[in-house]
Amino acid sequence: MGVSLDGYVVGPDYGFDWTAPDEEVFRFVTDEIREVGVHLLGRRLYETMPYWETADQDPSLDGPMLEWAALWKPLCKVVFSTTLSAVRGNARLASGGLAEEIERLRAEPEEGDIAIGGAALAAEAAALGLIDEYRARIYPVLVGGGIPFFPRRERRVDLELVETRTFGSKVVHLRYRVAR
C-alpha cells in the first residue's frame, strides 16, 4: 500500500490523491500484481476499484493502464463486507472470517501470493498474525492524520528487510518479511 512518511494510508479528509503513482511506480505496482494469485479486499477498497473491471473498453487509456486492467480484471478477488450483498467481476464475497478464508486459500494449490488491500482488513490480518510480508511505498508527504498504515497493537513483530527501492519521484519501496 501507499503510505505517507508520517504513517497514514489515507489522510484526515479520507483523501489519498498523494498516492497517485508516476509511470515508474505504476510499472513497479503492475509487476507486483503479476505475482498475486488472489487479492483480498475490504469493502472501501473494493468500492474504489470497479472502474478496472471495464477499463479495457476506455479508448483513452494508454498501454500501461491497459496492461494493469488486463491483469486486474481476471484476478481472483475476495471481498470482506458486512454491508454488500453482491460483487461483480471476478470477485466473490468472503464466506467466512478472515483467518478462516486465508487458511482455506493457503491450503489450495493455487499459484501466486495472497495480497491484502484495505487498511482495516490489513489491520485485522496483522492483529491475527496472518501477514507474512509487509510491502509499503512511502510517499514524501506528511498528511497529519487519517487512517494509519500500522494501527496500534499490543504485541511486537520483528521484521527482516527483504528489498528496498527508491524511485525517481522519491517514493521509497520497503519490503519486509515477518521474522518467525
Descriptive key words:
6 helices, 180 residues, 28% helix, alpha/beta
Binned, the helix content reads: 25-40%
Q: What class do helices, strands and sheet pairing give? A: alpha/beta
Find the count of extended strands (DSSP E, 2+ residues): 10
Q: Biggest sheet, strands in spatial order?
A: 1-7-10-9
Strand content: 25-35%
Molecular structure report:
- With 180 residues, this protein is of the alpha/beta class.
- Helices cover 28% and strands 28% of the residues.
- The protein is built from 6 helices and 10 strands, in the order E-E-H-E-H-H-H-E-E-H-E-H-E-E-E-E.
- It has helices at residues 23-33, 43-48, 51-54, 63-72, 98-107, 119-127; strands at residues 2-4, 8-10, 36-42, 76-80, 91-93, 113-117, 133-139, 147-148, 159-166, 172-178.
- Strand 9 and strand 10 form a beta hairpin.
- The longest helix is centred in the first third of the chain and has 11 residues, at 23-33.
- The mean pLDDT is 92.
